[in-house]
Design a protein that fits this description.
Elements: E1 23-25, E2 28-30, E3 34-37, H1 44-54, E4 58-62, H2 77-80, E5 87-91, H3 98-111, E6 117-120, H4 133-145, E7 149-154, H5 158-167, E8 171-174, H6 188-197, E9 203-205, H7 211-220, E10 224-227, H8 229-232, H9 237-257
Parallel strand pairs: 3-4, 3-10, 4-5, 6-7, 7-8, 9-10
Antiparallel strand pairs: 1-2
Helix pairs in contact: 1-9, 3-4, 4-5, 5-6, 7-9
Catalytic activity: [ThiS sulfur-carrier protein]-C-terminal-Gly-aminoethanethioate + 2-iminoacetate + 1-deoxy-D-xylulose 5-phosphate = [ThiS sulfur-carrier protein]-C-terminal Gly-Gly + 2-[(2R,5Z)-2-carboxy-4-methylthiazol-5(2H)-ylidene]ethyl phosphate + 2 H2O + H(+)
InterPro entries: Aldolase_TIM, Thiazole_synthase_ThiG, ThiG
Subcellular location: Cytoplasm
């Protein structure tokens, strides 16, 4: 899908000029196409430093694992990454049923003063963390009816992605490979099928290991990339956050520029016609 001619809601004066390169979700445009998680860092200071280095505008938070106010006596992530500066994307990591996922996001909405944007993930088991698609569909339908703007983690199945879009999800987020595996994009053909049919943003979620994985996702035509472990688990998380920022930008530019076709023959860089003999 082409998001170049999108509204600029959500951009401040400093970034309004970047709207043509922005990512639009549920009617709001964000200057960065990189979304980052907040788990696995040493502390909230490192989290904030990585978030800043990534250039992201959307920060996802696992409500079941990170305090954003549900535990009043503990430090809150929102002190380090305040909603006044970032869009907080609550997610349902750790949920294995539609019921638990819906309840978790209803709690998050209360903690975030009615904020409707959320990331739904309903997992199938603890070993693979693969999405449980029947429960995901059930939860997505309930959340959309309840007024949520649902971004949804899903399998790289174009049929399931289309069903989720028809339900009313504002973005589909197929996995590249298993969560935290760092294996990169294992099935670019399925991703391409999803991208070709989608009328909402397609954001790769899970499996990115290094900058080249992010660039490949963007070169395929994905609208964005979400990652956590690839940054937080790196030897130097802040440096990796910068690398991911550049990779997403470069991949998007390459996609818009249009790569040359692959050929089974050489093609000289300089034209042969009119050459000096």
């Amino acid at each position: 899908m082409n998001l170049n001619d999108t509204p600029t809601d959500g951009l401040d004066a400093d970034t309004a000029g970047a709207a043509s390169a922005g990512l639009t979700i549920a009617g709001k445009t964000y200057a960065s196409r990189l979304l980052v998680g907040t788990g696995k860092y040493r502390d909230f200071d490192e989290t904030r430093a990585a978030v800043d280095a990534s250039g992201t505008a959307i920060v996802t938070v696992t409500i079941r694992r990170v305090n954003i106010g549900q535990h009043a006596s503990e430090p809150s992530l929102l002190d380090a990454v305040p909603p006044s500066q970032f869009t907080i994307l609550p997610n349902t990591g750790g949920c294995y049923t539609a019921r638990d996922a819906v309840y978790t996001l209803q709690l998050a909405r209360e903690l975030l003063d009615g904020h409707p944007l959320c990331k739904l993930e309903v997992l199938g088991d603890e070993k693979t963390l693969f999405p449980n698609m029947p429960e995901t569909l059930k939860a997505a339908e309930a959340l959309v009816k309840d007024g949520f703007d649902v971004m949804v983690y899903c399998s790289d199945d174009p049929i399931q992605a289309r069903i989720l879009e028809d339900i009313g999800c504002v973005a589909v987020m197929p996995l590249a490979s298993l969560i935290g595996s760092g294996m990169g994009i294992l099935n670019p053909w399925n991703l391409s099928l999803i991208i070709e049919q989608a009328r909402v943003p397609v954001i790769v979620d899970a499996g990115v290991g290094t900058a080249s994985d992010a660039a490949i996702a963007m070169e395929l035509g994905c609208d964005g990339v979400l990652m956590n472990t690839a940054i937080a688990g790196a030897r130097e998380p802040i440096r990796m956050a910068r690398a991911m920022r550049l990779a997403v930008e470069a991949g998007r530019e390459a996609f818009l520029a249009g790569r040359i076709p692959r050929r089974f023959a050489a093609s000289p860089s300089s034209p042969m016609a009119g050459r000096i003999v």
